[in-house]
Design brief:
The protein is α+β, with helices and mostly antiparallel strands and 401 residues long. It has a single domain, classed as Cytochrome p450 (Orthogonal Bundle). The protein contains 14 helices and 13 strands. A six-stranded mixed β-sheet has the order 1-2-3-9-6-4, sandwiched between helices.
Length: 401
């Protein structure tokens, strides 16, 4: 193997987004992409990991068993002090496990997210979208697309699928948001973890007594699963699938408002809808920090040796902008063939809820721009603010029509 290491100074990680286009990945990651090789990065505790930014390398490594998703292995690149302290006090979810245990728990959930089940939900998703738009347009001709559109559409569908009452949404959103922050205060993190876990365990035990057809109802009826295990899966689905799709919906709407020609294509050419959703997923890639892994064996990535025990972060956002795979990848083009993007990751750990997320976006976004062809921002684009936690998103999208 070639000599280990890189002569370039390490990058700070996580890196900040630029003051320019808010849809672009951090410039430091884009610069690493242009070098064509893995970059060293320094984490919060001074430890060094590797960033992999190119499309072919990221895609290959997402399926490489020499990289582990097990957060308990020494060298795993945790993003903050609070994440490290929480690990010492909790059991990791199955997305942070490998092989047998990951496959076992994922298999239990897979049936609730297969294409046929989501297809059967499409009329209900359409109904929720139209009802939300009815409420949003009944007022004074202004709205905020985050609380008035993205949150109610996504929350109603996800909570119905999981079997959670919508009236509990404020409680669930509050605590799941804390769990998705990069570095929350440790006391607040513990409080939210305990609150969600207690709530879900109680709900699962009630579903054991009175079964239903929801995801949690289905899991509660499976032998060999404790209430704590079912609650842990429910917490993962709530935090990983709920806020992620809310942020993606709002950010996608904003990207279309910023590019009226692309919005027109979505509104007037229904045949483009499926491909348009794939392009928006590729272009925005809301998984802000990438996918963390740890090497369990030495591997060579285009001449750079990564040793066993070293952390690796696979940067999905730059992989999806790699010009070698997506020509002029820094442009939003709804006519592009964006299939095989990595917004949902790839391999054994790819997003379990991707079919549901795609379906929600495919129904919600065209309906928004079809119902409101004059939709426009009510404030200057430059005044908008964004959050850069585990998932990237816009804080508010004030609009008028």
């Amino acid at each position: 193997m070639p000599p280990h290491g890189s002569a370039d100074p390490p990058l700070g990680f996580p890196a900040a987004r630029a003051a320019g286009c808010p849809f672009d990945p951090p410039p430091a990651y884009q610069q690493a992409l242009h070098t064509g090789r893995p970059a060293r990065a320094v984490l919060w505790d001074g430890s060094v990991c590797w960033l992999v930014t190119g499309y072919p390398q990221v895609r290959a490594l997402l399926g490489d068993r020499r990289l582990s998703a097990d957060v308990r292995i020494d060298g795993f690149p945790l993003l903050s002090r609070s994440r490290r302290r929480l690990l010492d006090r909790s059991t990791p979810s199955f997305i942070r496990l490998d092989e047998t245990e990951h496959a076992r728990q994922r298999h239990l959930l897979a049936g609730d997210f297969i294409v046929k089940r989501v297809q059967a939900m499409e009329p209900r998703i359409q109904q929720v979208v139209e009802e939300t738009l009815d409420r949003m347009t009944a007022g004074d001709g202004t709205a905020d697309l985050v609380p008035d559109f993205a949150v109610p559409v996504v929350s109603r569908i996800v909570l119905e699928l999981l079997g959670l009452p919508y009236e509990d949404h404020p409680f669930l959103q509050k605590h799941s948001h804390v769990l998705s922050e990069t570095d929350p205060e440790i006391g607040e993190l513990r409080e939210s973890l305990a609150a969600l876990s207690g709530y879900l365990i109680d709900l699962v035990e009630r579903k054991r007594r009175v079964p239903d057809e929801s995801v949690l109802g289905h899991l509660a009826g499976r032998e060999g699963l404790t209430s704590e295990e079912v609650a842990s899966m429910g917490r993962l689905l709530l935090t990983a699938g709920h806020g992620t799709t809310i942020d993606m919906t709002a950010l996608a709407a904003l990207a279309l408002l910023r590019d009226p020609e692309q919005a027109r294509l979505l509104r007037t050419e229904p045949d483009l809808t499926d491909g348009a959703v794939e392009e928006l997923l590729r272009y925005l890639t809301v998984v802000h920090h990438g996918v963390p892994r740890v090497a369990v064996a030495d591997l060579d990535v285009d001449g750079t040796v990564i040793r066993a025990g070293e952390g690796v972060v696979l940067i999905l956002s730059t992989a999806n902008r790699d010009g070698e795979r997506f020509a002029r990848g820094d442009r939003l083009d709804l006519t592009r063939d964006a299939r095989h993007h990595l917004a949902f990751s790839f391999g054994a750990h790819q997003c379990l809820g991707q079919t549901l997320a795609r379906t929600e976006l495919r129904i919600a976004l065209p309906a928004l721009f079809r119902r409101l062809p004059g939709l426009r921002l009510a404030v200057p684009f430059e005044d908008l603010t964004y959050h850069t936690d585990v998932i990237y998103g816009v804080d508010a999208v004030p609009v008028t029509w």
